[in-house]
Each structure stands twice: as C-alpha cells, then as structure tokens.
Amino acid sequence: MDFAKLLQRHRKAAHLTQQALAEKAGMSLAAVAGGASLACASPTPMRA
User: Fold this and answer.
1) What is d(CA 37, CA 18) in angstroms, rounded to the nearest whole number?
2) 26 vs 19: CA distance, rounded Å
3) Which residue spans within the chain are E strands per DSSP?
4) Which of 3, 35, 38 is nearest to 18 (CA)?
5) C-alpha–C-alpha distance, residues 6 and 8, integer Å
6) Nearest of 36, 38, 18 to residue 27 by alpha carbon
7) What is the pLDDT of residues 6-22, one digit of tens each?
8) Residues 26-36: tens digit of each pLDDT
9) Distance in angstroms (rounded) separating the CA atoms of residues 39 and 47
10) Is the pTM higher than 0.70?
11) Chain centroid to CA 37: how far?
12) Any idea where the domains of the chain sit in the sequence?
C-alpha cells in the first residue's frame, strides 16, 4: 500500500475530512491534499 492510500485510510478511520485534518495539524488544506504526493516524490539533494 502506498503512502497516499495509507494516509487516506487513517484519516477516514478518524472521521476527519482533509480540511479537519489540516486544521488539527496546523497546516493548509493544500499541504494536506498535496502532502501524500509530495511525500512520495524523490528528495532533492541539498546544495552547500
């Protein structure tokens, strides 16, 4: 199971909408909605 599906499963089990999760986490709705895809993206190496 990928991260997006796991996140959705836990969010729904907690009876939370994306908006409610965003509010509880102190994040924007866009961050929660896009968080699953961002978490699965390849990391960008840091430059000195």
Assistant:
1) 14
2) 10
3) none
4) 35
5) 5
6) 18
7) 888 999 999 999 999 98
8) 989 988 887 65
9) 20
10) no
11) 8
12) 3-40
